[in-house]
Design goal:
By secondary structure, the protein is mostly helical. 80% of the residues lie in helices and 0% in strands.
Length: 160
Amino acid sequence: MVVPPLATVLSVAAFMVVKRAVDDVYGTTGGDMQASMYELHDKVNGLLLVQFVFFTAVYLLLSGLWFLLGLMMRGGRNWARTALTVAASLWAVTSLIALIQGDTQGFTTADKPPFFEFPGSYVVLDYARSALDLITMGAFIALVFLRRSNRYFTARRPPT
């Protein structure tokens, strides 16, 4: 139940690190350097900001759904375990892809001036979130199908 909100927070932190770096460089450069930062600055503060807000809202909604299904699963509902297992499997696959590809928020594919470097903390936050997601989703899937977990769901099943 902690992982979805934590993944959302790490995603927000990564975006804020890049936004601050772009704004700092844009605000402190002048002349041709500032002109070359114009496109990146507009992209980060325009399209990517809208995309970031949308995906953050989706992450928060999915975190709430994960929490609700977790409570249902704790109540012994096997269908909730199945739904969360499917969601965790998809999440693990996307996390693995993100670890291989890197830059899940699409910043490094933006046209950027040659003098501008994305902060190392962005890369660390991005990979840390992906690794955390992959490890915890793998652990979740393994734990909900242990023998002890199966007995829990069998014991909670209403008599027929």
